[in-house]
Amino acid sequence: MRIDKVESFQIQWSPEDMPGTRSAYVRIHADDGLTGIGEASPMEGGRASLDMIANDIAPALIGADPLDHAVLQDKLLHRLMKLGPDGALTGALAAIDIALWDLKGKSLATPVYKLLGGAWRTAIPFYASIGGNGRRTVDEVCRVVEQRLRDNPAAIKIRMDGDRTTPDRDISGDIEKVRAVRRLVGDSFPLAFDANNGFSYGGAVRLGRVLEELNYQWFEEPLQHYHVRELGALAQKLDITVSAGEQTYTTAGIADLINAGVRMVQPDIVKMGGITGLMRCAALCEAHGVELVPHQTQPVVGHLANMHVCAAQAQATKPCEFNDPSARRHAIFANPPRPVDGLFHLPNVPGIGVDLLEAEVTRLRV
Ligand code: CA
């Protein structure tokens, strides 16, 4: 089997979509007619990653054996290092890796989780990841949480989604919101708080103490992602689990977080390494006794690829992330993953387990 063609495209979900809110996909065709689908991080529509795929990566893949995906990824990462080893390049290579695993699964008529060594569980609990709460009132936050509870999530994460340039913007308001959500869901329902890099060290200590008192399970990305030493120090100071890593793009970057003292890491399969990269992170975490709880907000290709990796891990301490409801879940897919009674069931079919609706791809692709 050889790679015959590499397609990279955005999907515009609705006519109102801005270019920056489109999704970024890659489809790889093999010479035997099989195809694999992959996804890159959609930041700014994934434009930079798609451009690299079309101009720099695809020409190097034509004629290659899809089963050489790890060799191809490492070769291209090093060859293209100066395009920026953190961000768009690793997102592009992640998309390629996921597509090649999908292709590998199809060519061997085997689900990806089997190729990863088998699943400890194929029914996967999820947590509802709720964005945009920095802009909401306390009451609005509670109403959205109520809506998401209808899906029976195993936990809820409140994301603040600030602009990263105004640390400690509204700590009192944040405290009101986390208290109100705790009151709403009861004492024991698992909750998490995602600061999205919104605090100073001192501000994070202050909020962290409140989250501890309220029995929140983890405190995500309290500081700027590049303040690795401080993230480690904060993780060691607070009793609540402090997590980081969704903006870390290499296995070595995850190792830096672990060495600094962070004990729960959240690499993202569509940003770093794809399935191959996340499995490497899993080995690193297992060796260091660190929780691996991948970040993942893309509801179909990214979500499925992530669940195959999570299913293959012996120690899954937290549910998988599942983002806010979105048209992204449906438009071009025949069988997008949907939760049933609070669980996603991994498809027992070759590859990652999703089929495209060709007419919709043609209609919506950019
Ligand atoms: Ca986050």
Give a quick precis of the structure.
The chain is an alpha/beta fold. Helix content is 39%, strand content 16%.
What can you see in these coordinates?
By secondary structure, the chain is an alpha/beta fold. The chain folds into two domains: 3-109, Enolase-like, domain 1 (2-Layer Sandwich); 114-345, Enolase-like C-terminal domain (TIM Barrel, Alpha-Beta Barrel). The chain is built from twelve helices and twelve strands. The chain has helices spanning 47-61, 69-79, 88-107, 112-115, 138-149, 171-185, 201-213, 228-237, 251-260, 274-288, 301-311, 358-364, and strands spanning 3-11, 23-30, 35-40, 123-130, 155-159, 191-194, 218-220, 241-244, 264-265, 291-292, 320-322, 343-345. Strands 4, 5, 6, 7, 8, 9, 10, 11 and 12 form a nine-stranded mixed sheet that branches. The chain has a three-stranded antiparallel sheet with strand order 1-2-3. Strand 4 (123-130), helix 5 and strand 5 (155-159) form a beta-alpha-beta unit. Helix 1 crosses helix 3 and helix 5 runs parallel beside helix 6. The model has no long low-confidence stretch (mean pLDDT 96). Bound molecules: calcium ion. Calcium ion is lined by residues 194, 196, 220-221, 246.
